Structure formats: C-alpha cells, structure tokens
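We recall that each integer encodes one residue's backbone shape. We quote one record:
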Amino acid sequence: MSKLNSTRTAFLSAAALAAMALTVSVVAPVQAQDKTMKKSEMSGEKTVMVGGAPMYRTRNIVENAVNSKDHTTLVAAVKAAGLVDTLSGKGPFTVFAPTNAAFSKLPAGTVETLVKPENKATLTKILTYHVVPGKMNASDLADGKKLKTVEGEELTVKNAGGKVTLTDAKGETSTVTIADVNQSNGVIHVIDTVLMPKS
C-alpha cells in the first residue's frame, strides 16, 4: 500500500514538475516581451497610429510608411521615383505625406502616368516638394513660415487655432491631418492634398 502511495506521489510530482516547466516555457517569453514593451514605454517611445498601423520612432520613414494602408500610393510613387534609399537614409527629413485619398483628388490617370519610367523626373520633383531638410515638429510650423523643400521651391505655413495648412507654389492648400509622427530619421506629417511645385 505504501509502495502504491509512493509511486502515486512520484507520478504526481513528475506531473507537477512537467506542468511547471510548461508554464515557465510559455510565460517566460511573454514576460520578456512585456519587459521589452515596458522598456520601450519607459524610454519615451510613443507610437502614433497611421493607416491602421503603429508608427514606431525606432523605424525610418520608409519602414513605417509601408505599413500604412492610407499611404500605399505614396509608397508606390517613392519606389517608382527611386527615393527609397534616400528616405531610408540618415536624414533627418520632414515629410508631408499625402494619403491615398489625397492622390485620388488629382485628375483621373495622373498617378498612373506619373509612375511610368519616362516620367520619373517629374514624379521625383513632385515627391521631393513634400520633403524639407531637417526635423520640423508641429511646434516649429509657425504661421507665415516659408519652408524650403528638397525640390527647391517653398511651401508657406498657415497655423491658426491649432490647424496647420500648407500653401504650395500654385496657391493650393493642404491640411495637416496627423502631425508629429516621429521616425528614426525625421518626422512625418500626414496631409490631405498633394502639393504641387510651380514648374
């Protein structure tokens, strides 16, 4: 009888140890992940949701933009213009990023025409008109400020009542809908209209 009890005790102990081992193997990675998340939060990493995806300040402009479902047209245009390496570079850059809806405001067929290889120079000109050297947060976008773009022409800032708009060289305006999306190599401000250089 005692032999039966000792066998049963040994079996239960083995089962308990196996259950503990399984718990440790499942819980440990989760705890490690929690620590990583807490460390990320403690380091001040704040993510902003854009196009249904979190934008991480530890990733560069291209690495974040490819995850936004609202910026698939912009990403395709950046690839067609050969600007992926540039916008993945050290920077810093300030990018005013038009959404898919912004591109859809252009006349029918414009985007399809621009991404053709023979129109690469024009596409590059338009895209670099959305990029300003250096990192400019919303607090830097003062009313009346002129922003010299990578393309060479200027954008004019209007900042009234917390609403920031940009006026392009043709006098058209675009509104910043999501500001201060920090990246490892700069900052993105989401805009609702494609900006156009004069020439």
Remarks:
- The chain has two domains: 1-44, 48-191.
